[in-house]
Amino acid sequence: MYQKPFTFLFSLCLALFLSGVAVAQQTRLSGTLTDADTKAPLAGATVVLKDQLSGTVADANGKFSLATNRRGPWTLIVTMVGYERQVIPVTNADQPVAVALKVSTQVLQDVVVAASRVEENILKAPVSIEKMDIRAIRETPSASFYEGINNLKGVDMVTSGLTYKQINTRGFASTGNSRFLQLIDGIDNQPAGFGFSVGNQYGLSDLDVESVELVPGAASALYGPAAFNGALLMHSKDPFQYQGLSAQAKVGVNHINDPNTGAALYHDYALRYAKAFNNKLAFKLNVSYMKGLDWFATDYTDVDATTPTEQKGRNNPAYNGLNIYGDEVNRTITGIGKVARTGYEERDLTDYNVYSLKLNGALHYRITPNLEAIYSYNYAKGTANYTGSNRFSVNGFSLLQHRIELRGANYFVRWYTNQEDSHDSFNTRSLGQQIDRTWVRDLSGNVVPANQADDMWFTRYTTAYQGKASGITAANHAAARAFADQGRYLPGSAEFNREKARLEGIQGLAGAGILSQTKMHHTDAQYNFSSALEKAGLSKTEVLAGGNFRQYSLFTNGTLFDDKGGRILYYEYGAFLQASQRLLADKLKLTVSGRYDKNQNFAGYFTPRASIVFSPTEAHNFRASFQTGFRNPTPSDQFIKLNVGPITILGGAPSNSAGMNVYENSINSPTVGGFVNGFLADMQSGKTPQEAVGNNKDKLQKSNVAYIKPEKVQSFEVGYRGLINNRLAVDANYYFGEYQNFILNQVVIRPDSPVLGSDGKINPAAAQDILNSKYQVFQLYTNASDKVSAQGATLGLTYFVPGGYTIGGNGTWSDFNLKGANPNNIPSFNTPRYKTNVTVGNRNIAKNLGFNVAWHWQDAFDWVGSFNELRPGRIQAYSLLDAQVTYRVPSLKTAVKLGASNLTNQYVVQAYGSPAVGGLYYVSLTFDQGMR
Q1: Where does the TonB-dependent receptor-like beta-barrel domain lie (predicted)?
Q2: What structural domains does the chain harbor?
């Protein structure tokens, strides 16, 4: 199924290569880049032609070569992280250029694009922004660049497994974060069926990532509905600039002193090759493969909601272990009490041997010096263990992406598609419950059908407990359980493995398999009018405009959505305009932007943003902004239609319930109890059924559930970023946000009869339907009208010590205010009140030897999620220490890194129900830009 894109890519490469070699002889500019003080070559320094797309990167000896078809004279712009930017005029192409760069401590002079969608100095960005440049990525002490993002200010990272980490900012964290946008080269990196990005499972390899930019807080005004809580922009390496062969081999070990298993090997390999021809045609190929033993989820705490704390534990007849599945099935038996079935531990149901495979190819063709065409192909497949409403084995899940882009100096037009296939993924909790239904015997010893298994198991338990089973002592819970469990398939047995494999392959309610073959097609474009305005004499004015169109194509074959008859299609689009003006000799910059978005199923939304940046000097910059954001419901929020027997889960898009008369004609479920109790009391007092119904029917309340709509936020932010004495970098920020329309579920009951009569009151026939069980129960997706607020502050300090040492520290304070809202209507904040990071490093503590250490600490807090039915679980305060030492061998273009994530091997849980994560110790060998 994946051969056609490769055939197309090969044909396109060949055609463009032939056209590229036919280009007339071009001029080649070359030279050497060195450190002005040490005279050492500067490998990795960037050289670009001014006002052109052309550029390259210096090799290990500091040498560069750049071809151009423009006539001289030329202007080269030379940059490198940690060095002052230089502009070099060149008049003679035959004379090699020698450039000596001076060290600069002003690392905050980095250029970023995430804050405003245009290049700007990070010091003067209008909102808080964080960046990891190529050097920080290369020197991160974490096992991967993605994990290293946890050391940025304000970031919350939640680990569900070795291959799956979720990023969030500014509260309301979750293991599946649909409120945070993640882009790679402008591509939304989410499997559309999930509705959120699955960490870096389908992202970049360490060898191909150039930079990472993080915007915490509402960014919908520029990036659309998914950027409700922030945006992460990752940029890969340009094949024109980063050429040659790069390879990395990383081998490590985890599960040291793990009581669940012995130490296990970790493997991570990556290969990248890029080549350019005549500065006209370039391509790159990437392959990476990681495998290891995932962390074990083994918290067997009894979380049964109705058992008193002092009675909980393994001896509790209603025992419900957190990471045990199947024991959620329970009954309250007259004369015995609440009893739960015997479940299976997660470790027996899922496969902790995980892997991640990523393949990437990109072709770049420069039609003119200022116009480039790009085609990229990404294919990723892997396994992860993800904590959501259940624990899911995302097994063999693949994501396929195509991108076609036309990019100029001032604009781009882009199309891409995401196509997912859940393949062998399954629900671990459902698997445990279904296996429990395959072996239950009746009182004669015969195995009963699955649909009778639960009833029969409780019948056996009751029979044994009452002393009616031969040889069983009455009133003995342990003996009754043993009798009910006779014939139970034991983990690891041939029967258990047979049923496990069978049920994993059955998708829908009859099994545990998950099917999603959802697609997403996206087109977007952007144009920067600043150059045209500059030519018109408006050099201090910038105007930017853009828009996008996206179509979703959902398909689960009826296992999740009502799509057996074909795919569910819907679309959304948006457009934005941003204008900025520099005043007071460029000391003041005002920016306003607005974006309009329309989803097919919802009213359009306008999200404005305004900011002001005041820079009395280049070193001191004050900012203030007002931002708005919104989040469209995910595909599941809109279109889930899942009948699980006693209840139907129904998404909130109007078209999803068309003709079902649920939102229009239903009763609030909490009012049913009062009606039924009143009816029974009247019957006991001698009233007729008609009189009892008439006396109590008005205790019922017609529901007024609205169709689902987007969540909204308004946020205010002030901050300062600057340099003091050219040694101390300071970044301080405070924000306050108000949220409303949070998406939630509401349970209603739809009677067969109309809820209201002609008098506008509760219809007696509808009340009678409740008594006669002529109704259907629905869990509807809707919104809460409650408003809440959140505020927080961050402070970051970086001090540049003589001798090349850098000491950094940042702290974050977060505060949540319910403001009188109903807690049941609000998603949990799931964010520690305090967290901090401290880093120390020196990339040249000795010749070619560097190190970096990062310490992360966060406060304890309560985690609330659907995995534990919205009941809180405590996340204890913890700290993580990452460290690495790197030795570089420039003559071999090679670096050896010895490092550790969680060096002290503290086993910590980051989300309730997820595994305890310990240390990972590794050594890596990286060969970079050979065969140039």
Answers
A1: 416-903
A2: 3-104 (2.60.40.1120), 309-350+429-504 (no CATH), 637-708+745-783 (no CATH)
